[in-house]
């Protein structure tokens, strides 16, 4: 058994993992498509979100705010704030992907595939070659199936008369909760989540739709800038950023 | 309708610009501890606020649709049982659909 066959073994393992994630993304994309149309966006707008925004939490946030009556522009900052974490994935990925993936026009393509799943797959391997292979395989497959799923869901959703009867509107809070869930493992996470929920709820009757969610952002800033207890400094923040 | 298009295009390009910034900025900027901690906490605060607004915003005033609350509670049960993301949102949708059919 030489290095080569071991490399091939890990490549097929990577392809299998990537296919699993992508199949899941297809189904999740279909639910996004249905929810987006149910929230009042048309099929084209829904597809632009999946093709260009290509970041699940931000997409759900945008259609969630628009669906709950927010003026279009009020939804933009929320989607952007949820997209900030993708910028931070650039730190590990710049090292992993190297100059070739990040020079000239290739950087523009690479950047679009920087999301939770591709970052997790890339940092989950040890060999640089496997890391790059995992990033590209997951990214390309996921992009294709996420968009195919969105199209099917959006077309199916627009064919349905009243999405409420199918409970599609309940998918949005459930999706946010599922995305939030792993971050509630730390005390800090639970405190910030409770603070964000309280501030947003208190502001609902006082300010226009969309603003209550934005008002939760300063809580994250305060929590992030508070001094750490010695010994844990930096570590929790960096882990949570992954 | 135009307002929605503007939001879709601006937010989409903005989210792409954030990704592009991440693979373009010098690592020293993004590696600062305080910057990382704020970035890690932003999704927590925003997602919790989004759940709250989905649950308690009734056309601009405080209100609660018990069928939505039941859906989210069912989702929590699925999460505690370590079900996948997809199972969680399907459980929530089915719960609401069944309750709406019954009530």
Give the structure's gist in a few sentences.
With 242 residues, chain A is mainly alpha-helical. Helices cover 74% and strands 0% of the residues of chain A.
What does this protein structure show overall?
The complex is a heterodimer of chains A (242) and B (103). Chain A has 242 residues and is an all-alpha fold. Chain A contains 13 helices and no strands. Chain A has helices at residues 3-38, 43-53, 56-67, 75-88, 90-101, 105-112, 116-123, 128-159, 171-180, 187-203, 211-214, 217-225, 235-240. In chain A, helix 7 (116-123) packs antiparallel against helix 8. Chain A is globular. The relative contact order of chain A is 0.15. Residues 231-242 of chain A have low confidence and may be disordered. Chain B has helices at 2-22, 27-30, 33-56, 66-80, 85-102; strands at 57-58, 61-62. In chain B, helix 4 (66-80) runs antiparallel to helix 5 (85-102). Chain B is extended and about 55 Å long. Chain B has a two-stranded antiparallel ribbon. Chain B has a domain at 1-27. Chain B is mainly alpha-helical. Chains A and B meet through helix 1, helix 2, helix 3, helix 4 and helix 5 of A and helix 1, helix 3, strand 2, helix 4 and helix 5 of B. Chain B: It comes from Jiangella mangrovi.
Arithmetic mean pLDDT of chain A: 87
Distance between the termini of chain B: 33 Å
Q: Name the beta content range of chain B.
A: under 5%
Number of helices of chain B: 5
Q: Note the quaternary state here.
A: heterodimer
As a whole number of angstroms, the C-alpha radius of gyration of chain A is 20 Å
Number of domains of chain A: 2
Low-confidence stretches of chain A: 231-242
The ordered H/E elements of chain B are HHHEEHH
Write down the Rg of chain B.
Answer: 19 Å
**How does the overall form of chain A come out from the CA principal axes?**
globular
- Tally of alpha and pi helices of chain A: 13
Largest sheet of chain A: none
From N to C, what is the helix and strand string of chain A? HHHHHHHHHHHHH
Low-confidence stretches of chain B: none
* Helix/strand class of chain B: mainly alpha
């Amino acid at each position: 058994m030489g290095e080569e066959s071991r490399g091939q073994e890990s490549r097929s393992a990577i392809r299998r993992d990537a296919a699993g994630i992508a199949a899941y993304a297809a189904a999740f994309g279909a639910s996004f498509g249905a929810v987006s149309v149910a929230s009042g966006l048309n099929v084209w707008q829904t597809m632009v979100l999946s093709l260009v925004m290509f970041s699940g939490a931000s997409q759900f946030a945008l259609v969630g705010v628009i669906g709950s009556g927010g003026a279009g522009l009020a939804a933009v900052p929320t989607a952007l704030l949820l997209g900030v974490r993708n910028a931070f994935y650039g730190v590990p990925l710049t090292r992993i992907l190297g100059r070739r993936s990040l020079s000239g026009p290739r950087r523009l393509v690479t950047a679009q595939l920087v999301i939770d799943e591709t970052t997790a797959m890339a940092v989950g391997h040890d060999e640089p070659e496997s890391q790059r292979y995992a990033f590209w395989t997951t990214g390309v497959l996921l992009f294709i199936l996420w968009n195919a799923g969105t199209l099917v869901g959006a077309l199916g959703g627009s064919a349905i008369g009243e999405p409420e009867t199918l409970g599609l509107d309940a998918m949005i809070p459930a999706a946010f909760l599922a995305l939030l869930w792993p971050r509630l493992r730390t005390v800090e996470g639970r405190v910030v989540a409770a603070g964000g929920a309280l501030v947003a709820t208190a502001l609902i009757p006082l300010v226009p739709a969309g603003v209550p969610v934005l008002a939760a952002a300063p809580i994250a800033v305060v929590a992030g800038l508070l001094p750490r207890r010695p010994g844990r400094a930096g570590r929790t923040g960096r882990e949570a950023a992954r | 309708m135009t307002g929605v298009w503007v939001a879709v295009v601006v937010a989409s390009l903005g989210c792409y610009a954030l990704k592009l910034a991440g693979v373009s900025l010098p690592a020293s900027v993004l590696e600062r501890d305080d910057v990382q901690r704020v970035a890690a906490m932003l999704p927590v605060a925003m997602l919790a606020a989004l759940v709250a607004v989905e649950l308690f915003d009734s056309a601009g005033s405080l209100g609660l649709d018990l069928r939505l609350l039941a859906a989210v509670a069912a989702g929590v049960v699925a999460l505690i049982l370590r079900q996948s993301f997809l199972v969680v949102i399907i459980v929530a949708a089915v719960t609401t659909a069944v309750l709406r059919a019954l009530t």
